[in-house]
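Sequence, please.
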């Protein structure tokens, strides 16, 4: 999956990298190429070029990331399908400005990524694409030297006859929204392009199943026939959610785990209404829709409550085709939901960050770790949303999730940790909590693993000299002798004395306190 977001109204001035740091090979290949350790906690990328002082749009593919700042395009990560640029480099370790060809007639304003390809929308409404083209997902006009369906192609214009207002990509499929009308192309094997077919071709008895792709943008005719204008869409690699201007929600494509909220889990080739039954008599207005690989979510506005969220599909604790209201436990309204491959990041109105889904570290709220590497030990699921504690205090404004890593965006000017310097220029390294002792301070998470992974990433991206400067700012882990002083231990009340520091809990309610006296009785 991929998620792209426009951040024109938000000050995304800081970026944090989280997940696999090896951009070589494919998603299924080893994640520790040449000893490149995954980052189990977000590490800041302090020297990203931002001509406008902020990131305006960002997207992450399987192993690469692209973003827009000040009308210029930048990227890093895998380039093995030339999804970044045409240079003969399989990996771009450092952040590189991507120069579009002369055929580009405008400046970049929005980006979207599939697994191994990139889309860029320009300010004149045209769309450029590059990278993997095995399913004709680039939408280029073929010629005699570059046939459709070849493995990869360099940057060129998408054969789009209307000005694009929004672009979307996931897996090997693409979508464009223009004046309330949706266009789609690429791989259609799940029927999620909305054209009423999977494109399955006749095959020999023993041959593999083959699917005919949609080579160029085609209008999704069903919504036009129904005289519906589209306000927004959310996509995964296999299903599509559509929000109409009338506030209705429709789904089409793969319905495994019930993520289209239909009674059957078979493929849905014709858009169907997603019916969400309000839990009260108070009207609920649809605000936004969100899709991940295995689930769907929708945010509604309720007049006397604020924003609420419904979810359906594979939710971590169950698979339900009936939309259920989700309680995040946030002190503020839900602002954004970013979906990935069984992973969700939830952003609150005041910049809080929560995570939800599988491949999340079992240490729970102590670290808020979100792992993209199955080889990391102690990995389990979060059946319910939990706060990402190691990002506490940072004002998160957006995020992009790919198959192997995520990039989280924050607003430095609204950094909320008390007692810290407000000087943005000196705050290159921020670690508000020492997240390297996750199990109640009883043991350390793989000694130096976080430091080693951060050092390796910074060295490759910014050079050895700059990385050395940054590493000097990285807080040192608490010595083991000091950790022992705050170690938590289970004791009966007879083992306590006046002045003891205690943690007490009841189900999911926790409290910290100090023993002030004893009841002798």
């Amino acid at each position: 999956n991929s998620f792209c977001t426009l951040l024109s109204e938000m000050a995304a001035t800081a970026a944090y990298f989280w997940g696999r740091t090896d951009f070589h090979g494919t998603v299924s290949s080893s994640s520790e190429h040449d000893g490149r350790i995954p980052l189990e906690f977000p590490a800041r990328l302090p020297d990203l070029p931002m001509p406008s002082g902020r990131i305006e749009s960002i997207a992450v593919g399987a192993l690469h990331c692209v973003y827009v700042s000040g009308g210029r395009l930048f990227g890093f990560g895998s380039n093995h399908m030339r999804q970044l640029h045409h240079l003969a480099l399989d990996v771009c370790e450092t952040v590189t400005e991507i120069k579009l060809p002369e055929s580009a007639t405008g400046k970049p304003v929005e980006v979207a990524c599939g697994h191994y390809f990139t889309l860029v929308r320009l300010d004149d409404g045209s769309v450029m694409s590059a990278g993997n083209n095995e399913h004709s997902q680039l939408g280029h006009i073929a010629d005699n030297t570059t046939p459709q369906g070849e493995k990869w192609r360099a940057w060129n214009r998408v054969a789009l006859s209307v000005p694009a207002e929004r672009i979307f990509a996931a897996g090997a499929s693409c979508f464009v929204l223009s004046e309330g009308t949706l266009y789609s192309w690429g791989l259609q094997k799940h029927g999620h392009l909305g054209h009423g077919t999977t494109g399955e071709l006749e095959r020999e008895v023993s041959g593999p199943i083959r699917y005919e792709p949609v080579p160029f943008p085609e209008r999704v005719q069903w919504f036009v026939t129904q005289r519906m204008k589209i306000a927004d869409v959310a996509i995964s690699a296999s299903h599509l959610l559509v929000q109409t201007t009338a506030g209705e929600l429709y789904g089409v494509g793969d319905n495994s785990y019930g993520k289209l909220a239909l009674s059957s889990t078979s493929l849905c080739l014709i858009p169907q209404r997603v019916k969400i039954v309000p839990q009260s008599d108070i009207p609920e207005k649809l605000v936004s829709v969100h899709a991940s690989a295995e689930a769907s979510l929708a945010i509604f506005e309720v007049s006397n409550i604020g924003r609420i969220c419904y979810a359906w599909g594979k939710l971590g604790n169950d698979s339900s085709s009936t939309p259920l209201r989700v309680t995040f436990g946030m002190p503020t309204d839900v602002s954004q939901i970013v979906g990935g491959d069984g992973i969700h990041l939830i952003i609150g109105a005041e910049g809080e960050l929560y995570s939800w889904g599988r491949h999340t570290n079992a240490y729970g709220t102590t670290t808020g770790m979100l792992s993209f590497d199955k080889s990391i030990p102690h990995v389990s699921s979060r059946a319910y949303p939990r706060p990402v504690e190691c990002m506490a205090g940072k004002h998160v404004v957006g995020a992009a999730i790919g198959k192997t890593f995520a990039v989280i965006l924050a607003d430095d000017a609204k950094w909320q940790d008390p007692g810290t310097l407000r000087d943005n220029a000196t705050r290159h390294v921020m670690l508000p909590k020492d997240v390297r002792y996750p199990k109640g301070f009883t043991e350390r998470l793989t000694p130096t693993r976080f430091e080693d992974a951060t050092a390796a990433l910074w060295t490759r991206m910014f050079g050895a000299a700059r990385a050395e400067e940054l590493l000097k700012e990285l807080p040192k882990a608490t010595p083991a002798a000091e950790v022992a002083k705050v170690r938590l231990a289970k004791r009966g009340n007879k083992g306590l004395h006046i002045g003891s520091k205690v943690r007490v809990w009841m189900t999911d309610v926790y409290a910290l306190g100090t023993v002030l006296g004893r009841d002798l009785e």
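The helical segments are 221-225, 449-462, 464-473, 480-485.
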